[in-house]
Amino acid sequence: MVGQALVVQVIALVFQSAGAVSLILALLWNRRRGRFGWSERARARLAPGSAERRRVRPFLRDGTAAPDPELARLTVRVAEHRVRSLENPWHVPGTSLFAMGAGLFAFAQFHSAYGFGPLAWWGLALCALAVNGPLVRRIALDRARRALAANRELAEPHADSEEPPEHTGARER
Question: From 158's CA, which of 17, 44, 109, 115 has a CA 20 to 30 Å away?
């Protein structure tokens, strides 16, 4: 029983190491594209709220055109925010790998000490959620890009400039 737990813990360590490497690559990916610092925080503050996202959910889910220019503009805004937040190819897989390693480690620890108790189930559930992360990311990106393609033309004449100014200087303290 101890040998099996050790094997699972080594596998968990491999997953967590791969997750840490992926998260470092995600950080480097963001830095190469200028996505760090104060400008990203300003963009996040301008992100559409939950009520706005709820209004355009059907258009994002189906990738269809909105019926009026205002909804098309809002759909484009929500879809652009979603694409921008999910297009980093390393962040979601890295987080998922790290969570899978933590779940396996929790499963191995509690299963070897207490048998198949509730905390062992928690570890398995965390692994299942971690596997689901990259799949959900891919689906959300595809849907957002379809919604952008369907609504951008209708929204362009009514576009407003809500982009925050880019912060290029040194960080002020």
Answer: 44
